[in-house]
Specification:
By secondary structure, the protein is mainly beta. It has one domain. It has three helices and 18 strands. The chain has an 18-stranded antiparallel β-sheet that branches. A hairpin with a 5-residue loop joins strand 8 and strand 9. The longest helix is centred in the first third of the chain and has 8 residues. It is globular, with a radius of gyration of 22 Å.
Amino acid sequence: MSMEWEGVIGIAEEQVWGDAFRAATKKIACNTVSARTIPIVPDDTRATKTRMARLAVLTGLTEEFSWEQWVNPLNIGEVLKFVFGSVSTGGSYTHTYSMATTAGGLPPFTLFVDRGVAASPTKAIAGAKINQITIENSVADILLATVEGVGRTSSSKEAMSISAADCARFATDPFIFSDLAYRQALNGVALAADETIENLSIVINNNIVTDKRSADGSLYIQEPKAGMLEVTGSYDKEFESYAEYNAFIANQQLDLSFTWTSGTNILQLLIPNARITALPLPDIGGSSDRAMVTIEFRGLYDCTDSYGISCILTNDETDFDLVSSSSSSSSSSA
């Protein structure tokens, strides 16, 4: 019997986009995983002297995937590398992520999805790139990441084995809401602590081209290129002043800093130049003594810091070199 809850995913960085790998170099325990092969079959609307179509012509294939995971210090580093494009490691295992500045700068990887079925249970999606990540933290809850992207081709592989090191990573405590320290600044002043936010969502969207096809004799997409980077988000807080509302209607700069700290492990997201895009004032009245507002924001490129969003992760891993030494001989034109 197939047991879906026994599933796990693995990843391996590709040296050349679309090259499949024989084995995953990192496994991640996920809450939910979706991997879909999307066939393109145009409708048959010809006159055929029957009410039924006679042909179903396959003209293209696309691989799509998404997964949701708890964020802990040992399972998010590689994911962030594929979201941002590059990472550099300094002292005390501090990893700083920078956004790719060119369209082809996002690194490709092979995604392995093991569903725990009997024969060849792992679906390997080669040429995978991450289009979007959503980072969410509700009050009294665990930090969540939802990852979405596309790949080029898929094939069936043997089951993935779980090592003792994998088990240790699976058992690592995730970041939680009480680990979060939030700071903000309005109109360019210094960042200051704000302990009033209650729910948080940040979306990083690479806007990659997911349907590029050319006359190369293939049913598969070409290498996805990154488009305009979008950073959006929202947070909830109790309405106690007009400070953010006044900044909203004046289109003032909003600086944001989100830091989760668990022991020596730290995850920090910095958005140095945002604008509030929505701030509906609460209605007066009702049975609650709490007036809540949802503040939506959009990040912009900051010329002084030379980025629109930055991420810093401190853990006990030395680097995120996920290139497998046992790559297959298949080429990116498969």
